[in-house]
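Tokens in:
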């Protein structure tokens, strides 16, 4: 079943309130503190400058919060956090080397251009002026009021912003000297406009290989890597074989879940002694809460957001109508229509008086103190509605005064506190009331209302179709038998036995220690498997079995390769390199065959390879031939004399032999000045990234994280 609901976008100042784990590692963070003592540990170095645990954790914290706000997974961000910390250190080092300084005045002047602030219109007034003084004031208030958590998280965010500012200033300075000459622009125009009309014969690599198969040895891979050492420089990684045994519910399990929901639907629950069922209950919410695998949802939804089985039936159904049991994905469901009404949209504003212990609150006042403040404020507003604006100064919702306390337009489906929505639903435009929610006390004013389409309140009793103990035991037996078969065997044996058994097989070849998820698998055991594979005691050929929490699924893992930091293991990158080497071997075979034939025409070459002569128009700037990008072919087209058969050309997708018939000029829009500006803009955009990559490629980067976590794991 689709679970409906979303978290409201919060202002930048509330980043700290989102409750997420600071670290998503397998090892217990407490053990790290034991390892390091009272002071933060060192996770690595960049050109001798330490990367502290705090540096790393702060960056990870920011990434996790951003991910959560965007509805993305918060796990598997560790490696991204590491790369960002490394790059930040490199930028800071280069910034200092160039004698540049980021002053406090510069920070506040440049803040409006940072994406975090520039993309939020609430940070600008009606004239487009940046509200820098208001933002400063908000931050000062955090410090003055002793809101340590939110203020500390602003400092973390500020540090990330400073790095972005330094990067912009750094790249601006180093790219100042990048120029584009008139001659460069003229050459670009020439390459753009020149067109060569050619006839050609293509011997396709893939087609040729079908009759002339080529094998690539490990030595071939090694030789290629040695010729491209920078390209195949790798961090520590693992080659892991995985076989997945899902505990899929059997037909018997399915029938058991159906029988269970049938009993709750029309017979009676065990809690009630068999007297109360879903049809006759007088307390639907309580019955669902006590007997369903998913909680009761009191909200109203439009028909198109209801389960497929009932969405076309609710409009004509009477209150109290029941449906089911019906199946939706891996659930059995019975539903009851509790209410229906027009889903009016309401425009409202509120003043929030929070207290210590209320949800997302940083207030220090007691609940009783908050209630008295709210009561007194409400009484004053009832006597004089104009006092609402003055009361906003007391609101605990950030930026309430700037927004006039407005929460915008809402409907019964909006993920607000139920008590808040209930007040909006049951009161008319202009009404003001005092409502308590989990967030505190709200003084709510309904500013406007619009009639909407019908919405429905439905009670759904849900039973998940789960594997039984018997099914889980069968899966465990199957996984155990498999691991016994493969223990001490080669990886080829591991693979073949898995395939023979028609088991789900995966082989991620370059798994990083902190990548979080395993390609193809994506279970809550991924991090544990990765940590196991990186244990310093682990050896090639080791196997183990893992149980996925809550499902009974089993995973058998096999260490197929241990890549230490340095040059890539040839077999780990075979998938990347093998096609390149194959094509080079095939290109030589094809070229040698063409040369040996001493052919004098394209027709002869076409006959030699049982293919056909084709025609095309190519130019240097867009060297496309028959849908493939072939820069060498374009180069040969302009390099060979008119009417002469070219030498074999080793292309990207095959070997080409061509004859140039003519050259023409196809003038395109854009003069020298425009092209110069376009090239300069492109170069400027690409330079920053290339410059940073250069800094990173030439830096001495030391990563201690694997050692740190292995040591921490041993101390648990």
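Residues out:
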């Amino acid at each position: 079943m689709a679970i409906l609901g979303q978290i409201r976008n919060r202002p930048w100042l509330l980043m700290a309130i989102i409750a997420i784990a600071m670290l998503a590692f397998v090892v217990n963070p407490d053990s790290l503190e034991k390892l390091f003592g009272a002071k933060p540990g060192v996770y690595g170095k960049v050109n001798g400058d330490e990367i502290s645990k705090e540096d790393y954790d702060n960056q990870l914290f920011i990434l996790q919060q951003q991910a959560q706000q965007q509805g993305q997974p918060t796990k598997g961000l560790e490696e991204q956090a590491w790369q960002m910390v490394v790059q930040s250190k490199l930028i800071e080092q280069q910034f200092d080397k160039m004698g540049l300084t980021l002053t406090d005045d510069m920070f506040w002047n440049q803040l409006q251009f940072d994406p975090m602030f520039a993309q939020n219109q609430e940070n600008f007034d009606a004239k487009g002026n940046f509200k820098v003084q208001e933002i400063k004031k908000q931050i000062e208030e955090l410090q003055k009021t002793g809101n340590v958590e939110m203020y500390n998280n602003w400092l973390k965010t500020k540090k990330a912003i400073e790095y972005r500012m330094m990067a912009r200033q750094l790249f601006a300075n180093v790219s100042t000297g990048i120029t584009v000459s008139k001659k460069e622009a003229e050459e670009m125009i020439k390459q753009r406009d020149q067109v060569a009309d050619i006839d050609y014969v293509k011997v396709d690599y893939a087609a040729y290989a079908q009759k002339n198969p080529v094998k690539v040895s490990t030595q071939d891979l090694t030789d290629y890597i040695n010729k491209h050492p920078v390209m195949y420089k790798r961090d520590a990684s693992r080659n892991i074989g995985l076989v997945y045994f899902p505990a899929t519910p059997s037909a018997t399990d399915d029938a058991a879940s159906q029988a269970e929901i049938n009993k709750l639907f029309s017979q009676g629950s065990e809690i009630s002694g068999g007297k109360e069922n879903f049809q006759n209950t007088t307390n639907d919410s309580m019955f669902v809460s006590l007997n369903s695998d998913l909680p009761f949802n009191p909200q109203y939804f439009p028909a198109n957001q209801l389960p497929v089985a009932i969405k076309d039936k609710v409009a004509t159904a009477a209150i109290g109508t029941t449906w089911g049991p019906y199946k939706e994905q891996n659930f059995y469901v019975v539903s009851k229509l509790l209410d229906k009404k027009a889903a009016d949209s309401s425009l409202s504003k509120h003043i929030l008086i929070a207290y210590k212990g209320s949800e997302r609150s940083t207030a220090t006042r007691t609940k009783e103190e908050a209630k008295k403040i709210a009561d007194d404020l409400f009484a004053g507003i009832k006597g004089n509605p104009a006092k609402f604006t003055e009361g906003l100064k007391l609101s605990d919702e950030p930026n309430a005064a700037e927004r006039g306390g407005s929460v915008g337009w809402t409907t019964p489906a909006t993920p607000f506190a139920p008590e808040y929505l209930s007040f909006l639903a049951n009161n008319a435009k202009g009404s003001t009331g005092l409502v308590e929610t989990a967030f505190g006390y709200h003084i709510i004013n309904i500013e406007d209302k619009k009639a909407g389409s019908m919405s429905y309140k439905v009670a759904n009793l849900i039973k998940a179709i789960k594997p039984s103990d018997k099914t889980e035991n069968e899966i465990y037996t199957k996984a155990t038998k498999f691991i016994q078969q493969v223990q001490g065997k080669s990886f080829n044996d591991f693979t073949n036995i898995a395939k023979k058994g028609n088991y789900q097989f995966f082989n991620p070849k370059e798994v990083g220690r902190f990548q979080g998820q395993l390609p193809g698998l994506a279970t809550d055991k991924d991090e544990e498997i990765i940590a196991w594979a990186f244990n310093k005691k682990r050896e090639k050929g080791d196997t183990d079995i893992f149980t996925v929490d809550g499902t009974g699924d089993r995973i058998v893992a096999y260490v197929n390769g241990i890549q230490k930091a340095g040059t890539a293991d040839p077999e780990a990158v075979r998938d990347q390199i093998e096609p390149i080497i194959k094509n080079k071997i095939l290109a030589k075979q094809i070229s040698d065959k063409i040369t040996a034939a001493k052919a004098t025409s394209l027709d002869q070459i076409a006959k030699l390879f049982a293919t056909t002569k084709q025609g095309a128009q190519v130019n240097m700037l867009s060297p496309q031939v028959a849908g493939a990008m072939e820069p060498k072919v374009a180069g040969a087209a302009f390099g060979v004399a008119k009417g002469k058969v070219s030498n074999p050309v080793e292309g990207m997708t095959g070997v080409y032999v061509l004859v140039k018939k003519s050259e023409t000029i196809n003038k395109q829009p854009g003069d020298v000045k425009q092209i110069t500006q376009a090239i300069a803009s492109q170069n400027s955009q690409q330079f920053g990234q290339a410059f940073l990559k250069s800094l990173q490629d030439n830096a001495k980067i030391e990563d201690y994280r694997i050692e740190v976590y292995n040591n921490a794991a041993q101390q648990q």
